[in-house]
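User: For a benchmark we're assembling, each entry needs the component sequences followed by a predicted structure for the full assembly. Here are entry 17's components. Please fill in the structure.
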Amino acid sequence: MKEKNWKAATRFVHAGAHPDPSTGAIMTPIFQTSTYVQAAPGVNQGFEYARSQNPTRKALEEAIAELEGGNYGLSFSSGVAATDAVIKLLSAGDEVVCGNDMYGGTYRLFTKIFQRMGIVFHLVNTTDSENVARAITPKTKLIWLETPTNPLINVSDIAAIAAIAKKNNILLAVDNTFASPALQQPLTLGADIVMHSATKYLGGHSDVIQGALAVKDEGLRDQLHFIQKSSGAVPGPMDCFLVLRGIKTLGLRMKAHCENGEKVANWLRNHPKVKKVYWPGFMDHPGHAIAKQQMKGFGGMISFELKGDSVEETKRVLSSTRLFSLAESLGGVESLINHPATMTHASIPREERIKHGLSDTLIRLSVGIEDADDLIQDLAQAIG
Ligand SMILES: *Cc1c(COP(=O)(O)O)cnc(C)c1O
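Assistant: Structure for entry 17:
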């Protein structure tokens, strides 16, 4: 039933969706079951035990593969569980080249868990592909790339870094959470693995924690599935249903996030109290040209700093918005405001943060799909 020629908006609505063969239900049912009855020992319908397979999860995994232009999807209990599975492809002594500006939880997993087990991480500024090439040694097995980054909205050249990975015969994994497949498809640019915190734009409604991987290669899919069933980070069927439902409106939502993002970014940039706005849609953003090339829009994630660099004033603004809720997470229909230094990125040591440009006065916005005028009015009263 796969229609390869469908345009994106059609694919978002129909990806992974097949009427239920036993009832004709148009929506994939929530198969709330732990096991499946076998006709005879070893004789089953492709489902044995729900840590390995579940029909609701299978529908979602098909949808994720289709959205990302891959052949296989894998759905996990959280975004960090998906990242965890990718790093478990490696062994002690192996090396990873990754960004020095990435999601705090990824930094924590790499440096606090896997480093202890003998995997070596080289953190570099990936916005210059040459830095990635220079950090590769004969022991490097993986490049881990986040673009645009959380929270500094830095952009790296996926195709150029994919070429470096190919040349050195190593894997490239891309955290595509900020862009979502509606704006960026790393597999089509040469990446081997795409990772998502489906908690964010894929789910889209701040009502579920989930992660995902998409790949083209069958051998890689088999290795990742083996790791997942052995380690156990599987999502529940109800959560899979929620993400499947979220994906149907991904195209519409991302269009609204991009439109509102542009309006809010431009308004902030012209505000006399604002020092700097981080958003790749600006012509003078260092990653603008690459973003324009590899993304279909610039997204709704914006960070900014106020003039004066006062932590007190920053915290006052963070506590003064009424429509933007002060909370971790992003990518939901509602707008959120966040203080990376004390919230999402508190797990990164202060010195390390400051060195890579993440100041104590950075404010991050996840611009939702409300009316842009209301969002701007809220920021206006909060900034004052
Ligand atoms: C939230 C996030 C993650 C982690 O995902 P969870 O679903 O919270 O486990 C990873 N990468 C990025 C960019 C994120 O924003």
